[in-house]
Design goal:
By secondary structure, this protein is α/β, with parallel strands linked by helices. The protein contains eight helices and eleven strands. It has a single domain, classed as Alpha-Beta Complex (Spore Coat Polysaccharide Biosynthesis Protein SpsA, Chain A), CATH 3.90.550.10. Its EC number is 2.7.7.40.
């Protein structure tokens, strides 16, 4: 079976003084989250589409999903305290409500990347059906400088560098197995779901993203997103 999980658990602290998490802010007349979910309901191969949100915003998320989305495959689930705990809570929901198969896959995507295309979704599905883990990336344009504070420690070869986006997609059985092997300190340090598989020695396959598949994180990003929607419309 093929599932989608929209990660809407962030608090949006870099968005500044706003009344709600960034995924619920309005973009062209409706919440950013809804723009994202609408892209996923267009894909008929999904058996279920989860929207995983903070517990404090569960009722609000359910309300806006009812208002804008009529697709019965969409379910709202409470997330965890951090990204990968949220991811696993979504998987736990699926394992409790749907039959399990060794070839089940999940396509996970940030709620605040509303410009994802059907091509990117399709490429993730096709790759996840044959590989344990898939990451969506774009080639790095700028030189990457590795360092801490004000000291550079390395400048990697730019041709080998990519910027990570989402979706990140997984064979569910392989992901759960890899996650269960991690120590508590490893789990606490993770900021990227594909690293779960890398730490377990599993390969991660890359698929091509798009520069416009960006994450709305700051007020500037929201202005850019508004301009893109206005130009498209």
């Amino acid at each position: 079976m093929i599932y989608a999980q929209i990660l809407a658990g962030g608090k949006g602290t870099r968005m500044g003084n706003v009344p709600m998490p960034k995924q619920f802010l309005t973009l062209a007349g409706k919440p950013i989250l809804i723009h994202t979910v609408e892209k996923f309901v267009l894909e008929s191969r999904f058996d279920a589409i989860l929207v995983v949100c903070p517990a404090d915003w569960l009722s609000h998320t359910q309300e806006i999903i009812r208002k804008y989305i009529s697709d019965q495959r969409v379910h709202v689930v409470t997330g965890g305290n951090e990204r990968n705990e949220t991811l696993m809570k979504g998987i736990n929901y699926l394992q409790q409500h749907y039959p399990r198969h060794d070839d089940d896959v999940i396509i996970t995507h940030d709620a605040v990347r509303p410009f994802i295309t059907q091509r990117i979704i399709n490429d993730n599905i096709e790759a996840a059906l044959v590989h344990p883990a898939v990451d969506t990336v774009v080639a790095a344009i700028d030189t990457i400088v590795q360092g801490t504070d004000d000291q550079a420690s390395a400048i990697p070869v730019r041709a080998n560098m990519y910027q990570g986006q989402t979706p990140q997609s997984f064979n569910i059985k392989a992901l759960v197995t890899a996650y269960q092997k991690l120590t508590a300190s490893q789990k606490a340090s993770l900021s990227d779901s594909c690293k779960i598989c890398l730490l377990a020695g599993q390969p991660v396959t890359l698929v091509r993203g798009e520069s416009f598949n960006f994450k709305i994180t700051t007020p500037y990003d929201l202005r850019v997103a508004s301009a893109l929607v206005e130009k498209r419309d």
